[in-house]
Specification:
The protein is of the alpha/beta class and 261 residues long. The chain contains nine helices and eight strands. Bound molecules: the ligand CSCCC(=O)C(=O)COP(=O)(O)O and magnesium ion. Monomer.
Amino acid sequence: MAMVSIPANTSAILLDIEGTTTPITFVKDILFPYIKDHLEEHLSAHWEEDECKQDVHLLKKQVEEDLRLNRACAQHVLDQSVHTDEEKAIREVVDNVLWQMASDRKTPALKQLQGHMWRAAYAAGRIKGEVYQDVVPSIRRWRRQGLKVYIYSSGSVEAQKLLFGYSVEGDLLDLFDGHFDTNIGAKVESKSYERIAERIGCPPEEIMFLTDVTREAKAAEDAGVNVVVVVRPGNMELTEEEKLHYNLITTFSQLEVIDSA
Ligand SMILES: CSCCC(=O)C(=O)COP(=O)(O)O
Ligand SMILES: [Mg+2]
């Protein structure tokens, strides 16, 4: 097993979730189908509640933004406060959410609603967050070596905390020093990594980002962050050029801290 060094000046490890800590199949075959199967029921049950109203309001704002930028989109998200036909309004929200999911969009509006829906399923024990076996021991080792560990995922911070709080390995939230989602910016934009460095309180060069997606790796690299690309079963194939360019690992155990002592 080829080892990859964590540079001695590193103070924080930043982890992606889907395809990095967690199998893509967990997200695609369990989390996303849960939303599709329960969306209409969830909206009907909570339509009059403040949280649901805020979720719908955010979706509506996203539609307005998409229209402003001429993005093709399912345009019908109505403000339920002015709509009289609740069933029709719910149907339109369902259409918009399903359209966003089919396009694998990562908008904060979509991710916030998903997080709220998963909460009930995790709390009832119907879903448990999956993590690869090498993840927990490696994070514990890095922490013992003085590194901070953060999550940066397109999933909302709430969804991240549910996944790790109700995981197959129990409550893992104490492994993390903080969480970031797309409220700090998209994962494919380098500015997001600069903001994260600022929030963590260290220069980008002291952060190592682990992800399966090379567009995210490139954005992080452009910000000065060190990057390792994680190759897990079912992750997107890398090009030959990408394989040569990036440090690759198939398990977190391959990452070793260079001891400065
Ligand atoms: C964190 S829970 C669900 C994951 C999700 O919704 C998602 O979009 C995965 O994105 P990632 O940035 O972790 O690859
Ligand atoms: Mg990922």
